[in-house]
Amino acid sequence: MFHNSPTDARARPLGRNFMVRALLPWDMFFNAMTRRKTRFLLSALDDHLLKDIGISRGEIDRIARDTAGEPGIARTARQPTPTITQLNQRRTTMTTKTATSQKPARTPVAMNGVDTPTLLATINAVGGQPELAKFQFRAKSRWISGTHSQSTMEGFFGAGGEHKHKAAYKADGDHPAVLCGVDNGPTPVEWVLHALASCLTSGIANIASARGIKLRKVESTVEGDIDLRGILGLSDKVRNGYQGIKVSFDIDGDASPEQLEKIIMQSKARSAVFDVITNGVPVTIKVKTPALA
């Protein structure tokens, strides 16, 4: 009887028209627009991830609340406001009505060494606060002798602040004797293969855990073909880098071969290193030299 009265407008669902919103105080109008933006972000998250791993929107919100005290981005982000929670409850109700024949939503648990609830809470937090997604990783390298150099990865920026690894990780790069080095470490191009393999493998573990699939084995072989005539300046028709890279996986887990293959393909689709290698990235070089006397 009183549903159309202006004083009850706050309890109306998101479907209310613009004219009714215009009658509200400006602070309520602003909150309504904020909810529309949040709804868009959550919808995008559903399309790109939730459908893929088979977890409901309400389940991720519950995980986000349960892991509010966990470290990482999930803790950095503010928890959803009651208004957003009401929106998500409404979305969950609508989903239940249209999918009553589907099996109940699966509750994610930690597996494969992955803290799956915290992983999903992190995704939820970044979906609500995209500024937390901005990261910058850094490596500092120094020449030692000949073709031998050493890089150190110690700190990085992310989730709105500076962070440090639990240790300053070091990586040596060199050339083997056949390439005029002393073999104090893998060649730089071999480190590229390692980066690709480790990025794809970590993605496989995360995606399998989010889908509730227990892994027993994940092994990969990465091969890169290169023609040294480019590096040595013997031909301007030969590129300096790899002419092609092949990756093969040997994987076993509690899932069908088709499901395991889909996990690998999804990891490839979301791999940062695969993206860098296949699409390239702008690189700038600055030079600092001692001042001339």
What characteristics describe this protein?
293 residues; alpha+beta; GMP Synthetase, Chain A, domain 3; four-stranded antiparallel β-sheet; two-stranded antiparallel sheet; 10 helices
- Poorly predicted parts: 1-14, 16-27, 37-46, 79-100
If you average the pLDDT, what whole number results?
78
What is the N-to-C order of secondary-structure elements (H for helix, E for strand)? Answer: HHHHHHEEEEHEHEHH
Total strands: 6
Give the percentage of residues in beta strands. Answer: 15-25%
Main beta-sheet annotation: 4 strands, antiparallel
Inertia-based shape:
globular
Helix content: 40-55%
Number of helices: 10
General description of the model:
- There is one protein chain.
- The protein has 293 residues and is an alpha+beta fold.
- The protein contains 10 helices and 6 strands.
- It has helices at residues 18-22, 26-53, 57-66, 73-76, 82-98, 116-128, 188-210, 228-231, 257-270, 272-279; strands spanning 136-137, 140-145, 148-158, 161-173, 215-225, 244-253.
- The strands form 2 sheets. Strands 1, 2, 3 and 4 form a 4-stranded antiparallel sheet that branches.
- Helix 7 (188-210) crosses helix 9.
- The protein is globular.
- The model is unreliable at 1-14, 16-27, 37-46 and 79-100 (pLDDT under 50).
